[in-house]
Task: structure prediction
Amino acid sequence: LYKSFQEIEEYILNNNIMKTIALAGSHDDDALAAVVNARRKGVVRAILIGDEEKTKQLLTSMGEDLEYYRFIDEKGEAEAAKLACSLVKNKEADMPMKGLMPTATFLRPVLDKIDGFVIPQGLISQATVYQYEKEKRLLIISDCAINIAPVYEDKFKIIQNCVTLARQLGNECPKVAVLAPVEVVNPVMQSTIDAAMLSKAAERGQIKSCIVDGPLALDNAVSAEAAKHKNIRSQVAGCADVLIMPDLCAGNIFTKSLVYFSDGLSSGTITGTTTGVIMTSRSDTAANKYNSILTASIQSI
Amino acid sequence: LYKSFQEIEEYILNNNIMKTIALAGSHDDDALAAVVNARRKGVVRAILIGDEEKTKQLLTSMGEDLEYYRFIDEKGEAEAAKLACSLVKNKEADMPMKGLMPTATFLRPVLDKIDGFVIPQGLISQATVYQYEKEKRLLIISDCAINIAPVYEDKFKIIQNCVTLARQLGNECPKVAVLAPVEVVNPVMQSTIDAAMLSKAAERGQIKSCIVDGPLALDNAVSAEAAKHKNIRSQVAGCADVLIMPDLCAGNIFTKSLVYFSDGLSSGTITGTTTGVIMTSRSDTAANKYNSILTASIQSI
Result:
């Protein structure tokens, strides 16, 4: 069970688990800088797919030796994305990464019904892994970036995706809190209806390898004291490992609040595929980008 | 312009602005402790309405002298709430405060169409005032506790309520960010539709005494660097004073994340009434409760 990104890094370094990134659209200073940083720390190799000349110029300007990389000259965006996926499917690389291209273009070959990745639950979702300093452990928060208004069936799959990620992070039976603004069932709040249904479904064995409880408000999910104040009897309240967001508005604002108002480290990742997929954003910090590469590496083992 | 709760406290103490709380349901250790704390700091007086004997016992057990208070023996919850409101309407007190009773019981006389408080916009809303340490200023966040799924018209009023609060806190023309998960207009995301409408309405002079912009994601609303990364040209992006939440799920989780994952001070308050109204929650910290009393005092001047 990893309790910090540093522990993940140590595991990768000590066990020589160096995964290979297939960077699609490699002539991108931002994504390339993240790859170079991770390469220098010794946690990844990379195949750089894009405008080869521009990519090499960028590497040289970063003082990076070209010999560490394999280059594929492909200037087309869709083609580069497709190539990155093919390399992963052929086991020449372990995880695709988005470079200079729109998200939709990058994800199209990943999600392709015939040639794409294996997506066990039929839904991909985003998860933020947050290093909760106060309690020295990692929290998984989902979905903060992909599914706009997940209904019950989507949240069901988002939980399954998070459980897979939690297990990859060493947690065999994660405690999943389904969040709402309150901890009581209220028929005018859809988030509390979904939460009640999901808890019961897990109790009936419909969702496996985890303990699910909700509705829970954020405070009773993460603070044992707050849960006690409200007299909540729950195996999850106060000690949740996974926080399922009511919708994208809540997830997105929450995860950004962690970045801008707390000092904890975090990573963003894609869940629901059988291998890691890396999509960093220009506005992510360097630490966040590095942690995303670490997380995707663990997802690709 | 107050930049911290300490500045509000100093203003109240230096200008002898000691407001009188009418505590409804005073035989409540938790609310009473908050009143005693504020009384000892010299920022309020209080009239204690409830079970007089129990209230006096509680005060004595806190080592508090009874002579500082006026007592009204009223054991009925609805009656105590009504009495607290009457005292404020008669100018014998300045702001009602919720003690031992359900929120609905406490708010009923406040919202009463005939005998209740003046509610200029016809809607009350909750606001969290957050002391943003990094930038040494106060942020207003709304609504995190009352309006479940505010539609355009509700958000319009929530903005007006926040503008009033911002002015009470010394900000004559607050910058209001209407939040969504993204900063672009997307017809499948209602939060971005509302935000576009509200920005334009403000531009046309329909919302006064403020600058409104949205949709903005949380990062581009509060971080100038994030706004720059996205090439957003806006008078609000990166320097928002007021953050309007898409709905209660987002507002509630965001405000709780500030309490549990950041170390900043905050207060919760009611906006939309012409006087302060204090409703602290048992799970609030002592500092939060004190700051709520300070905020309500400033709203009652």
Summary: Chain A touches chain B at residues 132, 145, 148, 179-182, 188-189, 191, 217-219, 222-223, 225-226, 229-230, 245-254, 256-262, 264, 282-283 (CB under 8 Å).
